[in-house]
Amino acid sequence: MSGLAVEFEVATAICAARVLIRQLRGLLMDIGNAIRAWRSVRDALWDDQEEDQG
Description:
Number of helices: 1
Distance between the termini: 76 Å
Radius of gyration: 23 Å
Largest sheet: none
Structural class: mainly alpha
Order of helices and strands: H
Shape: rod-shaped
């Protein structure tokens, strides 16, 4: 393989890695948002139960 082809392969791999990292960050943010939403719902349900008992 020529030097130019190797450089092209390296650049392509770097771009692909950046895309994957961006996608992983987005996935982690989505997971974090889902956990926060679940906690909010859980806390609201707990508050309702406390009000019903109290």
